[in-house]
Amino acid sequence: MKNILLILITIAAFASCESVESSYNTFPEGEKDHTFSNYDMATTKHLDWNAEIDFDKQKIQGTAKWTFINNGTDELILDINKLEIQSVTVSGQEVKFEIKNKNSVEGDALIIPITENDSIATITYNTNGGVAMQWLNAEQTAGKKMPYLFTQCESIYARTLVPCQDAPANRITYNATVKVPQGMMAVMSAKNPQKKNAEGVYTFEMELPIPTYLIALAAGDIEYKAIDGRSGVYTEPSMLNKCAKELEDIPSMIAAAEKLGGPYPWGNYDVLVCPPSFPIGGMENPRLTFATPTIIAGDKSLVALIAHELAHSWSGNLVTNSNWNDLWLNEGFTSYFEKRIMEEITDKAYTEMLWEIAYQDLQADLKNFKGDKWDDTRLKVDLKNREPEDAFSAIPYDKGALFLRTLEEAVGRPVFDKWLTDYFAAHKFIPMNTGMAIKHMEENLDLKAAGIDLNEWIFQPGLPEKTAYKTSERFAKVDEGRKKFVEEGMNAEGLNARAWSTHEWLHFLRNLPKPLDLKLMKQLDMSYMLTGIGNSEIADEWYLLSIASKYEKAYPAMEKFLKSVGRKKFLEPLYKELVKTEEGKKLAKRILEEAAPNYHPLATKKMRTIVN
Ligand SMILES: [Zn+2]
Question: Residue 198 contacts by C-beta under 8 Å, 6 or more apart in sequence?
Answer without folding.
Answer: 182
